[in-house]
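Per-record layout

source: Streptomyces argenteolus
name: Heme chaperone HemW
length: 459
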Amino acid sequence: MTGTTRGSTHSSGPYRSYVYAYPHKTAYRPLGDGPAGRPLLSDLWAAERKDALSLYAHIPFCEVRCGFCNLFTRIGAPGELTTRYLDALDRQATAVRDALGDEEPVRFAAAAFGGGTPTFLTAGELERLCDIAEKRMGADLRSVPLSVETSPSTATADRLAVLADRGTTRVSIGVQSFVEAEARAAVRPQHRSDVEAALGRIRDARIPVLNIDLIYGIEGQTEASWRTSLDAALAWRPEELYLYPLYVRPLTGLGRLGTGADAPEGPDAAWDEQRLRLYRAGRDHLLAQGYEQVSMRMFRRADAPHDGPEDYACQTDGMIGLGCGARSYTSSLHYSFDYAVEMREIRGIIDGFTATEDFSRAEVGRYVDEDETRRRHLLQSLLQARGMRRAEYRERFGSDPYDDFPAELEMFDARGWLDATARPALLRLSPEGLAHSDALGPDLFSPEVRAAMAAYEAK
Ligand code: SF4
């Protein structure tokens, strides 16, 4: 929901890119020419463990396009587009489930609906989406964590009732700012009263975990106005809060306006300084209010129930993505459909998806070898506040992270980003290391992934 992926700010600053999945989709490429070149899903999944899969369904529709957003989504759904999209999702789910086979147990341990805005769908369409997950894929939504993203204007009582009834355990709402002028500056105009009403409806639906997304670094935002947003969010006692630094990236609304880091008059260093200051203020405020830090962005109320996955894709289990913006992971291939940020390109890709009859092969992706798997493990564990147990890494890979990544870890150490008190059992970031997660993450990218991302042409 909150568009925060690749960075476009200067390469030495603290805000280079948000690494929530490695490798990034911009390192994916078409998987061979012609049907023969594209791997069959049944072959890809044949030797994989399938008893603790994650299911993700991507709904690429929003009512408006937020100025900072570079996620795969379009504005509105003319005609019967949502129906056609769900029809395609149904065909895809059938093909994927067939490909998983029945020789070994197939079980889903977690599910999520993201976007875009899943609640752009009507209550009836959400029922259908849950049916696809349950009846086609075999996911038992009522017995596993199910997370759903929403927005203030689409979090209506009828939709929330469906979601609660079907087993949703977590609702995440993108608020970004409770200050109306800031919401306008981030090109997401909304009235605070509408946001508050939506939060009330979510609480009324009694879904166990509420997450609120907020953004800092918006033009005109001050420490005082940031505190206003934080306190307005805290008044709802959300179980989780995500604090996102604002990024301005190519082809987004703000990118086209030429504001923020890309503005000729906007000195990067001053903006970085502002974001770091607001980050620290936000972090300290939440810690003082009884929240614990899970990662740079994620905070959890210390007394909140917790049964969901952490702030990262599980290290070893597979992921099945449905929908044209969704990724799937086997142990050796990450795959998806084509990716774009520009509206016309996105519309074309969605139209192509809805017209697809044959979903039996992977289209676009990147093979992940042993070296990349180690990087991914280190990266995703290190970006968690609790850190990485070295023994766990050694158990999985038969080597020590200091043997595999000596240069990177020495560099982090020299910058004061590693917590010396956690050694030797743990590799854990210091508070400054966590603050610099978006610089540290990209430092761990392999040269090959870096080159592929650099060669990617934004569209
Ligand atoms: S509501 Fe839609 S446009 Fe706005 S950040 Fe979320 S996905 Fe992007």
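summary: Residues 1-3, 62, 65-66, 69, 71, 73, 115-117, 151, 174 surround iron/sulfur cluster (CB under 6 Å). The chain has two domains: 27-301, 370-455.
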